């Protein structure tokens, strides 16, 4: 509860009020969130299992994909279970430290995912444009170092945003019109003119992200140029099948995040904020496994062997 101490409002907890007040709509959102969360967990755990157990999925691309699925599992687990529990118990509070932890984890995992997507674009560039040197460039040690650097950069990114967001006083009410603690909603509660630091960090982050996105685009221009030089249609299709899922995931991740911050900056209604937050916090972790498993030929073969083998064994046992 807010406590007045020497004319400064000390907020000890926040109230996450992102869901509608209508009881039926709340239950509908709970059911929807639960199924989205369950789908995301199942899809990403399946990717982790396949890329760990199948000996044909041990290439660097699948090592990075396993890391991406682990990030998505953690990313969606930071916000959705808490929001479902709050709605079911009609207790919408989150402690100040809990809110700090949520902001850190969301930004940490989002930063790590973006860094990993950049690494994966470099992996595709090396595989297609420099195939003779690919095994030397993307050796196991280099892959582990790149993945570790992605996690470390995400941690630094999360710490910077936490420092920028919570280095100011919160003068407004403690009502956060979101189902989790996100930075744009928290900045509306800070004292007037006191959130310049975080806005500066966001602008700098956007500029750096845009520069990295340009590098990804340059990589894919070279990739597509190399693909078009392949003489056979089968060879071109096979190469596209390993590159297009990654490009689709990058586009989905960046576009959802950009739309979220643009809409938040325009101070849209809370219902629109809820939709946009769902777009960038729930949709990418849920769709990433679908995109990779449906577009990647090796993943489809591994899925077929996993489920086909189990069904064949079960049928054989029933037969005897």
TrEMBL record:
Gene Ontology CC annotations of this record: plasma membrane
Alphabetized InterPro entries for the sequence: GPCR_Rhodpsn (IPR000276), GPCR_Rhodpsn_7TM (IPR017452), Olfact_rcpt (IPR000725), Olfactory_GPCR (IPR050516)
Membrane topology: Multi-pass membrane protein
G-protein coupled receptors family 1 profile domain segment(s): 43-292
UniProt subcellular location: Cell membrane
Keywords: Cell membrane, G-protein coupled receptor, Membrane, Olfaction, Receptor, Sensory transduction, Transducer, Transmembrane, Transmembrane helix
Transmembrane region(s): 28-50, 62-80, 92-116, 201-223, 243-263
An example Gene Ontology molecular-function term: olfactory receptor activity
Homology family: Belongs to the G-protein coupled receptor 1 family.
Protein's job: Odorant receptor.
UniProt name for this protein: Olfactory receptor
Protein species of origin: Orycteropus afer afer
Recorded name of the encoding gene: LOC103213038
């Amino acid at each position: 509860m807010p406590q007045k101490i020497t004319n400064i409002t000390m907020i000890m907890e926040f109230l996450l009020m992102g869901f509608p007040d209508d009881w039926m709509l709340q239950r509908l959102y709970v059911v929807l969130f639960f199924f989205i969360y369950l789908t995301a967990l199942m899809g990403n755990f399946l990717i982790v299992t396949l890329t760990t157990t199948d000996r044909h999925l041990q290439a660097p691309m699948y090592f990075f994909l396993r890391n991406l699925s682990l990030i998505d599992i953690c990313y969606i687990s930071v916000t959705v279970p808490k929001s479902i529990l709050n709605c079911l118990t009609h207790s919408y509070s989150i402690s100040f430290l809990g809110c700090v932890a949520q902001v850190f984890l969301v930004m940490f995992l989002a930063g790590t995912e973006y860094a990993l997507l950049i690494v994966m674009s470099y992996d595709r560039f090396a595989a297609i444009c420099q195939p003779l040197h690919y095994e030397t460039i993307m050796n196991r040690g280099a892959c582990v170092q790149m993945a570790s650097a992605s996690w470390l950069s995400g941690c630094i990114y999360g710490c910077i945003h936490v420092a920028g967001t919570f280095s100011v006083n919160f003068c407004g009410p403690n009502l956060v019109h979101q189902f989790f603690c996100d930075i744009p909603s928290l900045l509306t509660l800070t004292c007037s003119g006191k959130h310049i630091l975080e806005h500066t960090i966001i602008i700098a982050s956007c500029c750096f992200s845009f520069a990295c996105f340009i590098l990804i685009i340059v990589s894919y221009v070279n990739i597509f140029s190399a693909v078009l030089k392949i003489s056979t249609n089968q060879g071109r299709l096979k190469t596209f099948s390993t590159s297009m899922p990654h490009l689709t995931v990058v586009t989905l991740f960046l576009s959802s995040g950009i739309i979220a911050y643009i809409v938040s900056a325009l101070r849209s209604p809370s219902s629109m904020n809820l939709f946009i937050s769902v777009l960038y916090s729930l949709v990418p972790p849920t769709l990433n496994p679908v995109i990779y498993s449906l577009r990647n030929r090796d993943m489809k073969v591994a899925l077929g062997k996993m489920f086909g083998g189990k069904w064949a064994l079960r049928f054989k046992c029933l037969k005897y």
